[in-house]
């Protein structure tokens, strides 16, 4: 490819020689970094926190936390004790046992992290839910997973239809002035009284760890189950890709409701004993730059939408802050525009390293490494120890520069192990030859760089958040005025895509701007703000197949003014 290249970064990096490591690396080497390699006793939370509290890192800061009203710091020793306490609280008052599903539905706060770690110490499976979810989305997830315990806040609990969730036995409320009636328990009060010692539940490497619900193009959101074994890849990619080193101050801007916020907001940094910055509150360019300056952030993992918003806030703003601590910047979640990389070079004097992976892969699979040249527009190369290829629909590997399915050879350490209660769905991701098909199309050049081309299915990536059109369409259809609905992603310069809904109205309804707004609000309050269509277009009729399925492909062609392709299956 005749593209411009950005030379390797200067410095001493954990991964010095990509090609050599790729040829020689074996995952068994990574296993040596865990205490279970000697003791045989496995638990992610022990490896991420307690183990460090027993070493020179005991008084090292594990968590720097701040939001509009709080500013706190916790050492590894304190994190150990507080997660022990949380574990005791969940066990004593929630009856949490190994394998139970414990859901956490709250904005970022230290208590969110204590709860996640505490639940993992009990061998429970943690289900983090993004705070923006409304009742319908919350119910679907708690119901499907048969969650036994929920940790939430007084502000959010009214979105939990407790009476409709028979499996849910206890609800912990984090906050002030909480009345303990029925299933409701005052988390903070119990934390104060709790014992700081806890018997950790030792698990098998293949036991469940975390359940992230994510969207596909059809059906309800599905529960992607990851196991403790994923820590091997979390650790190794935190070293090679995030390049975490002993003195780093690391900031991942993702919320733990999404996979980036757990794999690289919790596990990767703490498995490597790194000081981890977590900020609450909403995105504001000033606050973000201020956080980098105040904490002296050295490694920063964020997303293209955020970088584009920062870019939009202007270069003068960047100059007001001292961002000289930054030494390594990374991105994930959507295509990283070459223009953004060039902007990053200009204002930060640093390359932004794109990485590719997904909820199902559990950890980074393709990346740009500091020791490697960047070809802007490419997502980088496969991580050593994982086989990535472009395959056709039958699992045959395609030659360089041919577009096809971005696929991964089954067996990487952080691979999802189950779609919750849906083994057929799980199997449907794999082609003959053991190729996991990602749903993304891409090509690979002669040098092994992978170039993203688009989603093969209809999944929408808006501001780096993954939204399934089916979930939005289902909610739209619950609105009394909506007869038919089809939802697509419309390209947007800042957000990557925005959600656009095409709606056919019931007979008694007339199109109007007020009705659009009402429908929008209906999705916003029923599902989630980020899932509400930013644009709604009324049509008399939507394109459907003869079997009655909305043809999103045709909607997309309307939107983009492109030919719709094969219409032979469309009803008359
Ligand atoms: C997209 C987020 C282009 C892709 C960790 C993938 C990307 C989906 C990139 C997964 C990238 C992720 N360039 N697209 N570097 N990284 N994607 O499950 O379509 O929320 O399949 O995981 O995001 O989204 P998910």
UniProtKB/TrEMBL annotation:
<keyword id="KW-0007">Acetylation</keyword>
<dbReference type="InterPro" id="IPR045851">
    <property type="entry name" value="AMP-bd_C_sf"/>
</dbReference>
<dbReference type="GO" id="GO:0003987">
    <property type="term" value="F:acetate-CoA ligase activity"/>
</dbReference>
<dbReference type="InterPro" id="IPR025110">
    <property type="entry name" value="AMP-bd_C"/>
</dbReference>
<dbReference type="InterPro" id="IPR020845">
    <property type="entry name" value="AMP-binding_CS"/>
</dbReference>
<keyword id="KW-0067">ATP-binding</keyword>
<keyword id="KW-0547">Nucleotide-binding</keyword>
<feature type="domain" description="AMP-binding enzyme C-terminal">
    <location>
        <begin position="471"/>
        <end position="549"/>
    </location>
</feature>
<keyword id="KW-0436">Ligase</keyword>
<dbReference type="Pfam" id="PF13193">
    <property type="entry name" value="AMP-binding_C"/>
</dbReference>
<dbReference type="InterPro" id="IPR042099">
    <property type="entry name" value="ANL_N_sf"/>
</dbReference>
<dbReference type="InterPro" id="IPR000873">
    <property type="entry name" value="AMP-dep_synth/lig_dom"/>
</dbReference>
<protein>
    <recommendedName>
        <fullName>acetate--CoA ligase</fullName>
        <ecNumber>6.2.1.1</ecNumber>
    </recommendedName>
</protein>
<feature type="domain" description="AMP-dependent synthetase/ligase">
    <location>
        <begin position="50"/>
        <end position="418"/>
    </location>
</feature>
<dbReference type="Pfam" id="PF00501">
    <property type="entry name" value="AMP-binding"/>
</dbReference>
């Amino acid at each position: 490819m005749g593209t411009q290249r950005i030379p390797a970064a200067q410095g001493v990096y954990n991964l010095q020689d990509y090609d050599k490591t790729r040829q020689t690396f074996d995952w068994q080497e990574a296993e040596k970094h865990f205490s279970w390699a000697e003791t045989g006793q496995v638990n992610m939370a022990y490896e991420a926190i307690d183990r460090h509290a027993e070493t020179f890192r005991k008084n090292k800061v594990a968590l720097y936390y701040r939001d509009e009203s709080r500013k706190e710091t916790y050492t590894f020793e304190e994190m150990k004790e507080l997660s022990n306490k949380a574990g005791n609280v969940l066990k004593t008052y929630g009856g949490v046992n190994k394998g139970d599903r414990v859901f956490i539905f709250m904005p970022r706060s230290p208590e969110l992290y204590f709860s996640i770690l505490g639940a993992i110490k009990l061998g429970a499976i943690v289900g983090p839910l993004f705070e923006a979810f409304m009742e319908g989305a919350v119910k679907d997830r708690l119901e499907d997973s048969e969650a036994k315990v929920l940790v939430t806040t007084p502000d959010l609990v009214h979105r939990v239809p407790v009476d409709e969730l028979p499996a849910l036995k206890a609800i912990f409320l984090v906050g002030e002035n909480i009345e303990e009636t029925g299933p409701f328990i005052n988390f903070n009060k119990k934390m104060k009284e709790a014992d700081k010692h806890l018997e950790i539940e030792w698990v098998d490497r293949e036991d469940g760890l975390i359940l992230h619900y994510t969207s596909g193009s059809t059906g309800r959101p599905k529960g992607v189950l990851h196991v403790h074994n994923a820590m091997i890849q979390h650790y190794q990619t935190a070293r090679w890709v995030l390049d975490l080193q002993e003195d780093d101050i690391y900031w991942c801007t993702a919320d733990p409701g999404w996979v980036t916020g757990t794999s690289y907001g919790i596990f990767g940094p703490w498995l490597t004993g790194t000081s981890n910055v977590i900020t609450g509150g909403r995105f504001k360019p000033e606050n973000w730059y201020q956080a980098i300056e105040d904490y002296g952030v050295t490694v920063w993992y964020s997303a293209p939408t955020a970088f584009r918003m920062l870019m939009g806030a202007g270069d003068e703003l960047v100059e007001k802050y001292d961002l000289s601590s930054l030494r390594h910047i990374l991105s994930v979640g959507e295509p990283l525009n070459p223009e953004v990389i060039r902007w990053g070079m200009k204002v930060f004097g640093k390359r932004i390293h794109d990485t590719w992976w997904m909820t199902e892969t559990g950890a980074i699979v393709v990346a740009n490494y500091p020791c490697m040249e960047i070809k802007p527009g490419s997502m980088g190369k496969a991580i050593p120890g994982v086989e990535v290829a472009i395959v056709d629909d039958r699992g045959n590997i395609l030659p360089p520069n041919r577009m096809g399915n971005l696929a991964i050879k089954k067996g990487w350490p952080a691979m999802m192990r189950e779609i919750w209660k849906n083994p057929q769905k799980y199997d449907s991701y794999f082609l003959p030859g053991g190729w996991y098909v990602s749903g993304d199309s891409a090509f690979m050049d002669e040098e092994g760089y992978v170039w993203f081309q688009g989603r093969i299915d209809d999944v929408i990536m808006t501001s780096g958040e993954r939204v399934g059109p089916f979930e939005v369409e289902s909610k739209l259809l619950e609105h009394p005025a909506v007869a038919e609905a089809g939802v697509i992603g419309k390209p947007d310069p800042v957000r990557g895509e925005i959600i656009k809904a095409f709606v056919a109205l019931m007979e008694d309804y007339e199109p109007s701007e007020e009705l659009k707004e009402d429908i929008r609000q209906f999705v916003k309050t029923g599902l989630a703000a980020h899932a509400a269509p930013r644009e709604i277009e009324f049509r008399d009729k939507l394109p459907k197949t003869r079997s009655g399925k909305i043809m999103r492909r045709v909607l997309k062609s309307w939107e983009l003014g492109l030919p719709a392709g094969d219409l032979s299956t469309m009803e008359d």
